[in-house]
Design brief:
alpha/beta, 168 residues, Spore Coat Polysaccharide Biosynthesis Protein SpsA, Chain A
Length: 168
């Protein structure tokens, strides 16, 4: 079964100011070496952004409104309810997926004991370089993998939200 598991990607968005980053996130999903089953953009209580994304990504993504409680948890739950694939993968609206992101997530779901699979999240710093005063141990503050995180395949307690996937 070369297409197992099927994977729906969910990107939650809330702010028109992030439109350039949302475009980059969507482009990174569409450029995957392993195609997504579907791409779901969930807009969190922002009618202007909902209309803009629905227009801009018509045919490329399902753009839906978060009908649940406002906030990331409600938006993610709305996306999961809309998904139909074997697996849901979450990508933040200000993140860019590596070209083999979905392929690397999918390869682990052959093990029926696994519930979820995640990966590293590497910060992209404005200007291209980490600020000298900001140590790698604090990358968790900006939602990224930090020094001390597993380097190899390992069981973890929590996955990083911008790069996590779960069986449905």
């Amino acid at each position: 079964m070369p297409d197992f598991p099927s994977i729906d990607v969910i990107i939650c968005a809330h702010d028109m100011a992030r439109l350039p980053q949302i475009r980059e996130a969507v482009s990174s999903v569409r450029a995957q070496s392993r195609a997504a089953h579907g791409l779901i953009l969930v807009v969190d209580h922002n009618p202007g952004l909902l209309a803009r994304l629905a227009d801009e990504f018509a045919g490329a993504a399902r753009v839906i409104e978060n009908g649940a409680a406002q906030g990331l948890s409600g938006a993610r739950n709305t996306g999961v309810a809309e998904a139909s694939a074997d697996v849901v993968a979450f990508l933040d609206d200000d993140a860019v997926a590596a070209p083999d992101w979905l392929a690397r997530l999918a390869e682990h779901y052959g093990d029926p004991r696994l519930i979820g699979v995640g990966g590293r999240a590497v910060p992209i710093w404005p200007g291209g370089a980490r600020p000298g005063w900001f140590p790698e141990e604090f990358d968790w503050v900006v939602g990224c993998t930090h020094r001390g995180s597993p380097e190899d395949l390992a069981e973890v307690r929590n996955l990083i939200g911008c790069n996590m996937s779960f069986r449905r």
